[in-house]
Q: What sequence folds into this?
């Protein structure tokens, strides 16, 4: 991910702000669409036209709640045709247009929106873009000066003022505008980076380098955008050694990330072009940086909006497209994410990153065969990288094709060894899990033990290896202690707590099993396997009615197809007498394994 990892604190006040600020985040309740029709007050059905208007409006609201902004704007556009003066419809249609990236439609409504709310920052930003595209730098400065100095969008004003002043050729005014970021805690790194870009664009290399160096001092842990931007500056000013050292530092700090290798390999030889070619691109960079900072669960809707503005200013901003695709994926919009990724051409340095995301989107859309084909093609194209093989392993493991997944991870590990890459615990863990599920315990045990050597306190490894020993009747005391340690490290992880409960069950401690399994169900109430385990533990403790209740819940929560007959048989006949039959593998979440270096 190319996010700017600037540390910031809380950045919006509590309370419900104006629609144009936070409706996209679902934080505001808006007034009714229009006054209630007299017929409705009298208990009579509203006229057919009014009923049609309300239906269209409600369809738009439903699409908005689903974050399907293109569909929402289509519905609201139909409604606004019938009631063009409705403040509610103007505001909602405008906001949905911004969320969908339809800035032509947003521009049509921006003036009307500002009449309704003169402090609407998003409408001002739309007009700033319009003025910059028209070559009206003075008009852009005027619009930027009207941006609110408080509220949820208060961080935008210094950035917009700075780059509109640069469009007007006013470097001192731009510098002064960025100094306003001092009012906000934690924004010093962003300020220094923007000042570096500002003076770099203005041709004042010495001042630019000074601010870039300050930015590096503020960020001991490098992220890609920061690394690439400053290395770009070094290369353009005859300091290739410093650029190379910076890229190497990024690679060492971000083991497992291939973005540096793939981007640099795809770039044409020679001195690169400047990162910022116009004031509009400078403002696009600022909006992208702000979107990257806000790309968190609590503020992801704001990240979407600011990234949309970045792309409105610079449509071929590839990193902004990757960020937009990531945000849409997080919002469970894989089809929209895929459409964004397909805009990145194969000759782009960011094509590799885009294609990995395309494969992930295809899998989400149940187009698994296409995802597998693409990842295999990528692996064949680039034999010195491992990312495609690792993702291929993840896809295959999610589809329970464990032997094939183990083979993919094996290829990734072989390539990593050939390139002298540092050992990564997650790869050995992934191959170990896949081998165990494929029935190759000896290979799995060796991989899991090596993963534990690399990461001794990793709860996933402790859980899986420790439980496997208990399940197989091997190293019982050591295995139980490992699972207990995993729970200690992650007490709120219901899957790991379930493993500890099931370990107690396998060792015949049914009272202890109930204690932990009840806790696991509290943590993950809708997991079929955990409810099934608790039902078994209840049965062994003589709590037969409660056992059947849990088994029914297990059936309600979508168990694996092959588990359904077993659970139904337990509901009909209860559990058979205790025997040494094998039990399921340790619990792991359904999502792909966490990765680390």
A:
């Amino acid at each position: 991910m190319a996010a700017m990892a600037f540390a910031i604190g809380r950045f919006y006040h509590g309370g419900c702000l104006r629609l144009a600020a936070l409706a996209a985040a679902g934080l505001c309740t808006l007034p009714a669409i229009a006054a209630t029709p007299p017929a409705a007050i009298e208990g009579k059905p509203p006229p057919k036209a009014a009923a049609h208007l309300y239906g269209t409006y409600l369809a738009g609201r439903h699409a908005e709640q689903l974050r399907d902004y293109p569909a929402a704007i289509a519905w609201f556009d139909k409604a606004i045709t019938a009631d063009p003066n409705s403040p509610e419809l103007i505001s909602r249609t405008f906001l949905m247009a911004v969320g969908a990236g339809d800035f032509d439609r947003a521009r049509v409504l921006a003036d009307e929106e500002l009449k309704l709310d003169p402090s609407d920052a998003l409408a001002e930003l739309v007009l700033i873009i319009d003025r910059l595209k028209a070559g009206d730098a003075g008009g852009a400065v005027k619009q930027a000066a009207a941006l609110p100095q408080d509220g949820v969008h208060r961080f935008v004003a210094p950035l917009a003022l700075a780059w509109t002043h640069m469009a007007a050729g006013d470097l001192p005014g731009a510098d002064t505008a960025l100094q306003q970021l001092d009012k906000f805690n934690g924004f010093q790194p962003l300020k220094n980076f923007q000042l570096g870009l500002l003076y770099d664009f203005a041709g004042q290399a010495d001042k630019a380098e000074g601010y870039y160096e300050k930015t590096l001092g503020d960020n001991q842990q490098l992220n890609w955008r920061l690394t690439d931007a400053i290395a770009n500056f070094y290369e353009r000013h005859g300091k290739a050694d410093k650029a190379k050292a910076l890229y190497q530092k990024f690679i060492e700090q971000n083991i497992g990330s291939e973005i540096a290798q793939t981007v640099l390999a795809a770039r044409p030889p020679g001195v690169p072009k400047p990162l910022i070619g116009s004031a509009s691109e400078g403002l696009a960079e600022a909006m992208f940086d702000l979107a990257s900072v806000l790309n968190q669960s609590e503020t992801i809707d704001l990240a979407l909006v600011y990234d949309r503005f970045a792309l409105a200013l610079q449509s071929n901003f590839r990193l902004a497209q990757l960020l937009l695709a990531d945000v849409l994926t997080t919002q469970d919009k894989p089809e929209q994410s895929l459409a964004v990724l397909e805009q990145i051409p194969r000759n782009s340095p960011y094509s590799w990153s885009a294609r990995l995301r395309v494969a992930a989107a295809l899998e989400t859309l149940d187009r698994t065969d296409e995802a597998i084909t693409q990842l295999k093609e990528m692996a064949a194209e680039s034999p010195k990288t491992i990312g495609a093989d690792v993702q291929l392993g993840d896809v295959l493991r999610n589809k329970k094709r464990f032997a094939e997944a183990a083979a993919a991870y094996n290829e990734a590990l072989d390539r990593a060894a050939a390139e002298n890459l540092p050992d990564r615990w997650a790869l050995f863990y992934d191959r170990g899990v896949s081998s165990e599920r494929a029935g190759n315990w000896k290979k799995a045990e060796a991989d899991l033990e090596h993963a534990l050597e690399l990461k001794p306190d990793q709860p996933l490894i402790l859980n899986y290896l420790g439980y496997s020993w208990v399940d197989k009747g091997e190293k019982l005391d050591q295995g139980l202690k490992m699972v207990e340690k995993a729970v200690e490290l992650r007490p709120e992880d219901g899957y790991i707590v379930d493993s500890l409960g099931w370990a107690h069950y396998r060792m015949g401690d049914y009272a202890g099993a109930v204690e932990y399994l009840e806790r696991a169900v509290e943590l993950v109430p809708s997991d079929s396997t955990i409810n099934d385990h608790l039902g078994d533990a209840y049965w062994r403790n003589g709590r037969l009615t409660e056992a059947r209740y849990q088994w029914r819940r297990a059936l309600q929560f979508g168990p694996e197809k092959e588990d359904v007959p077993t659970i139904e048989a337990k509901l009909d006949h209860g559990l058979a007498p205790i025997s040494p039959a094998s039990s399921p593998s340790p619990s792991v979440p359904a999502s792909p394994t966490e990765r680390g270096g």
About this structure: The first helix runs from residue 19 to 22. Residues 555 and 561 are 10 Å apart (CA to CA).
